[in-house]
Amino acid sequence: MRFLESLIQDLRYAVRGFARNPMFTLTAVFAAALGIGATTAVFSVVDRILFRSLPYPNEDRLVSVGMLTPLDTSEFLFAGAYLDWRRNQAPFESITSFTAGVADCDLTESNPARLGCASVESNFLPTLGFSPFLGRNFDEQEDRPNGRKVALISYALWQSRFARDPNIAGKIISIDAQPVSIIGVLPRDFEIPTLARADLLVPQALNEGDRQSTRALRLFARLKPGVTIAQAQAAMQPLFDRTLESVPPAFRKEVHLLIRSLRDRQAQDARLASWILLFAVSVVFLIACANIANLLLARSTSRGKEMAVRAALGAGRGRLIRQTLTETTLLALMGGAAGCALAWGMLRLFIGIAPSGIPRLDQAALDARVLLFTLAGSLISGLVFGLAPAIHARTAESLAGPRATGVRRTLLREILVAAQIAVSVVLLTGAGMLLRSLWNLQNVPLGLSAEHVVTADFILGKQRYSEDVQQLRFFDDIESRLGAIPGVTSFTISDSLPPSGGVRARPFAAIQVEGRLTFQEGTGGMVVWRYVTPGYFSTLDVHIAHGRGFEDRDRATVENSIVISDSLARKLFPAGDALGKSLKIDGQTSAVIGIASDVRNNAPAGETSPEYYVLRKPTLDATFRNQMPPSGWRQVKVAIRTPMNPNAMAVWLKKEIAAIDPALPVTISTMRERVSRLNDRSRFNAILLALFAAMGLVLAAIGLFGLMSFLVGQRTREIGVRMALGATPRAITKLILSRAAVWTLAGATTGLIGSLFATRALRSLLFEVPAHDPWTLAAVLSGLLLVAMPAAWIPSLRAARVDPMTALRQE
Question: Which phi and psi (to 5°) does residue 22 adopt?
């Protein structure tokens, strides 16, 4: 009870003290709110990537399995080989698969919608450790070719589309104009291991008798208890070696077995960015701590006599330290409360500007775990804040000593300010390099013009467009309608559009120059290709460097023509004689009629992929039947170039497609929007690091301003004496600024040295910017001077206006 009474007394005194000095209180709470709020917001994001358990039972035993090849950036396995692996899963408790990629499918009812449909095995949910929330999982009979059409729907779809109907099991819906029976609802926290959005799970229906199937599968397995990833890798290596025998010898060196944890599979390149952001915000937090500690040190100096009187009246040193720590802890908790509000706003900002592909960012929230982290951070920061002033508590004897009225040394406060400046320089340097890298990325030539281009994406349903004739009739109809839209200068229809990750690709070694014996060691990399209509190059403004592009007359001939990119031409024809030559691809011979400039189909920082274009011949004439796109071409991209308002043209374009098929869900966007998404990840990293660097710089400026104001207040008598003896206001200003310049220079020098080491971690995030970029360092120093000098100039002006007589009359 005695302790509780004294604690309440300390709290009451702390509140009265803060109320007597509101400017100090607001400044300290603001600094604490910045540090704690930013740290809380970032922790809520990276916690789910780096620290929090995945939503799978015993998730530490889940692994991703497959072979890594130049065909894909992630591990996979062909279905034929998987059937062999499934029978020999020695290190695994169970192994399962789903067809690579979550395919788009259409809910073709009165209110059509585009959905994500994942084809999975019947043991997919049990392997991951899930059970349906409602209904049941599909069985092995349904997971066979020609099995009953069933589906499991996501909790979100059940909630939004079916109003959480408890009797949803057994309901028939139309997917791609085909009846499908809903047999269950997935749990709320279910997710595909690749984190792709899946609204429906449908049976994969592998053909057990087809050992040559080349369907690409993603494999996930659950390790047996006690088995490590390294042991599983060693156990599966002989099986992988046997599978490797079916790979052409020239390609075997480029194929590797990969088994990794599910967390590593999901985080991938987001892990490095997460650690960098966490480090940056931790630095901001430390700057805030140093700033408030500096403020409290200055306050403790002004309260020196008060503490000495308390000691003289019987307060022990422990009691004085407790009083100080109570005040600082209360201050930190106030800052933590304000920081939670700031963290909520920053988290909304992060989610709003974040690109797709950052794992679980949409799940980030200020939940109990994050709030507990905030509370712990506030309490720890309170102890850090109060440590320095607590150990400088006065004793009763100091009332009679010269230090009762003398000037205390400010070395600790100056070191803290220099440290703030140093870490601010590190943050500013990193942010500057990322911003320069972003600028370089945004100015990389893409090989096309994105202005005045509107695009439409849709999928032709398997049921409604099951025959080639139906597809071709649709294409004929849409081409005639696009050509009749007023204001359309050109248009194209393709199976993919740049920039896109959904392009077709084949190994370079699969392309042969007719009449030339070629030998390629390995795959030779991947070559992108796509079906296009004659208006493709004019619509996207892709320059034809040599020869010509496709024309309508090329559709009326039985000969095949092909346009290749400049990089593919250099690779196939080093002598520069590509025009008129013939290429043999998949047993079909095509004449090269043109060479197009390279177009980037991926991130600007990546290499430009070689590419070729095949003309789509939409005709029902049986003469050209062997030249038509395969029936599997259902992903359709339409692009139109128009000088009109893109929004108005988007409405018109959607209306024309609906006139052909009103049940067809269509996604409309501009080419400018598609291009801007290329740099979303780099923009996100640069904005966040620049935000934290700006916070650190503001806090460092506040710290420098507080230190200089404290020095002026402490040296008022000295300044008065100097001015009485003839010192001019200019000399006094120079005296104060020189003191600030010394510690600013010390902090900047230390920060530059630190940045030389810290920026090495950013190398993988930079594009055409050296890790020790002198221009960035010069800009950082200039910005630091622009902020630091005004922070020191204002107190120096106050010092220059000190009245000598008033200063000399002070006690």
Answer: -65, -30
Instruction: Collect all residues with Cβ–Cβ distance below 8 Å to 101 and sequence separation of at least 6.
Output: 196
* pTM of the predicted model as reported, rounded to 2 decimal places: 0.73
Residue from 383, 401, 369 nearest 322 by CA:
383
CB 150 within 8 A of CB 136: no
Q: Is 647 helix (H, G, I), strand (E, B) or coil?
A: helix
- The H or E element that residue 509 is part of is none
Q: HSE on the CB side for 631, CA within 13 Å?
A: 10
The burial of 236, by beta-carbon neighbours within 10 Å (0-12 exposed, 13-18 middle, 19 or more buried), is given as buried
The stretch 433-458 carries a mean pLDDT of 84
Cβ burial of 774 (10 Å; 0-12, 13-18, 19+) is exposed
How much is the pLDDT for 326? 80
> Which of these, 421, 633, 598, lies nearest to 527 by C-alpha position?
598
Q: Is 653 left (phi over 0), alpha (psi -120 to 50) or beta?
A: alpha
Assign 315 a pLDDT band (cuts: 50, 70, 90): low
136-195 pLDDT, tens digit each: 999 888 888 888 899 999 999 999 888 899 999 989 988 877 889 999 999 998 988 888
Q: What residue type is assigned to position 101 of the chain? A: G
Assess contact for 281 and 423: CB atoms under 8 A: no
Contact 408, 301 (CB under 8 A): yes
Torsions phi, psi of 212, nearest 5?
A: -105, 10
Residue 280 pLDDT class (50, 70, 90 cuts):
confident
Helices (H), 202-316: 229-244, 262-267, 270-302, 304-312
260 burial class (0-12, 13-18, 19+ CB within 10 angstroms)? Answer: middle
* Model confidence at 357: pLDDT above 80: no
C-alpha distances in angstroms, 667 versus 223, 450, 524, 626, 679? Answer: 41, 17, 35, 31, 21
